[in-house]
């Protein structure tokens, strides 16, 4: 996309590659470094971080929704409108969505520093690495149009999810946080809705980039499989 080609971190794939490699090194080396060290509490840091991500997600949800409404996006088939200033507004917020995936690498760092290594699962690492890199691709080839829907849904889910994380960092509130399992259900619902939205556009021969639609659709299916397995292992099998 010529409009976004020279934006920060988009002109070359190397910043993404470097950050991804550093993240993977952190995942591998971090627990080893912390093995014989005392875990950090980070309670205040966690509360502030989760408030920030919640606020950022809420802002992104609002910006994406308003841009889509202002452009009169067809919710079945939304196409890029390079001549419309609102399209640049949409591209801008989707860049922030992409960049937020780099910020969210801190989730893993906090797990490591708090020695919650059991939370650094394949699903966790796969999700963080893939989202960051996939959105580099999306912003370079199809920054607006159909690309708006997944971030809209995901930003909404993240408002709820990071609100939960923020509240769970306060020990006095933990007994009242009974709704954790429903966040996973909401994530799965999000994936199914995005898959439906994606393949519906393919079926109706929407003019958005076809290979990108198939790619994102298959990626969503991989998340359904992984999150379903997580839900089964965490809630269904434990209960039985």
From TrEMBL:
Cellular component terms (Gene Ontology): membrane
GO terms (BP aspect): fatty acid biosynthetic process
Membrane topology of the entry: Multi-pass membrane protein
Enzyme's top EC category: transferase
Annotated TM spans: 12-30, 42-61, 95-113, 125-143, 155-174, 186-202, 208-232
Enzyme Commission number: 2.3.1.199
Alphabetized UniProt keyword annotations: Fatty acid biosynthesis, Fatty acid metabolism, Lipid biosynthesis, Lipid metabolism, Membrane, Transferase, Transmembrane, Transmembrane helix
UniProt name for this protein: Elongation of very long chain fatty acids protein
Organism of provenance: Branchiostoma floridae
């Amino acid at each position: 996309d010529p409009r976004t080609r020279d934006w920060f971190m988009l002109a070359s794939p190397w910043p993404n590659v470097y950050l991804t490699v550093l993240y993977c090194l952190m995942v591998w080396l971090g627990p080893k470094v912390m093995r014989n060290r005392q875990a950090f509490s980070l309670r205040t840091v966690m509360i502030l971080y989760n408030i920030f991500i919640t606020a950022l997600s809420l802002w992104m949800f609002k910006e994406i929704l308003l841009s889509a409404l202002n452009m009169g996006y067809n919710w079945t088939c939304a196409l890029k409108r390079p001549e419309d200033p609102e399209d640049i507004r949409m591209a801008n917020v989707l860049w922030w969505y992409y960049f937020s995936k780099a910020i969210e690498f801190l989730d893993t760092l906090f797990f490591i520093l708090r020695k919650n290594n059991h939370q650094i699962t394949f699903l966790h690492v796969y999700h963080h690495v893939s989202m960051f890199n996939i959105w580099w691709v999306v912003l370079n080839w199809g920054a607006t149009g159909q690309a708006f829907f997944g971030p809209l849904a995901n930003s909404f889910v993240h408002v709820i999810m990071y609100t939960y994380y923020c509240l769970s960092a306060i020990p006095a509130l933990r007994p009242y946080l009974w709704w954790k399992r429903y966040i996973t259900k909401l994530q799965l619902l999000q994936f199914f809705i995005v898959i439906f939205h994606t393949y519906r556009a393919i079926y109706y021969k929407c003019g958005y980039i076809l290979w990108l639609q198939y790619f994102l659709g298959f990626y969503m299916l991989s998340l359904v499989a992984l999150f379903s397995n997580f839900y089964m292992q965490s809630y269904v099998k434990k209960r039985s």
